[in-house]
């Protein structure tokens, strides 16, 4: 099992991949002269990569019963991902990569603390302690500084 340091480095590199993806998608929008088609291309390539991943992992196709019993709201992850891609294609060029990411992280942190605190969507509860709230406040201060 990888150490916490290795997992933290991988998580940080994932952040690099996310902003790189958004910059590429914004440039693809210019190249294709269409935000919508840039999103379609991004998702098509992503879908192809996920099929390769499924094959590499040798995961069986989920049963029809499992698909039918899944709560409707769990299916919205793809729609939220598409919304993220579409908005990022527009916002990264207008705000800049640093401001976009700072605002993105602030929104994620605020929502994450609330979701953890209330155990939303089946998460294990983790209290919104004063230390966590101060951390979120400092992140918001960081967003303000990055935006200036």
UniProtKB/TrEMBL annotation:
Transmembrane segments: 6-24, 36-57, 72-92, 97-115, 127-146
Signal peptide (from-to): none
Keywords, sorted A to Z: Membrane, Transmembrane, Transmembrane helix
One Gene Ontology CC term in the entry: plasma membrane
InterPro entries: YdcZ
Protein name (record): DMT family transporter
Pfam entry (one): DMT_YdcZ
């Amino acid at each position: 099992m990888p150490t916490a340091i290795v997992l933290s480095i991988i998580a940080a590199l994932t952040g690099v991949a996310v902003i790189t993806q958004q910059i590429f998608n914004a440039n693809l929008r210019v190249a294709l002269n269409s935000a919508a088609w840039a999103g379609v291309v991004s998702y098509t390539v992503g879908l192809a990569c996920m099929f390769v991943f499924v094959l590499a992992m040798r995961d069986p196709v989920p049963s029809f019963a499992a698909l039918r019993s899944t709560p409707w709201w769990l299916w919205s992850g793809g729609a939220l991902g598409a919304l993220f891609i579409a908005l990022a294609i527009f916002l990264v060029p207008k705000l800049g990569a640093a401001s976009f990411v700072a605002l993105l992280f602030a929104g994620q942190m605020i929502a994450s603390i609330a979701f953890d605190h209330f155990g939303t969507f089946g998460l294990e509860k983790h209290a919104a302690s004063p230390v966590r709230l101060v951390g979120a406040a400092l992140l918001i201060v960081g967003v303000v500084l990055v935006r200036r």
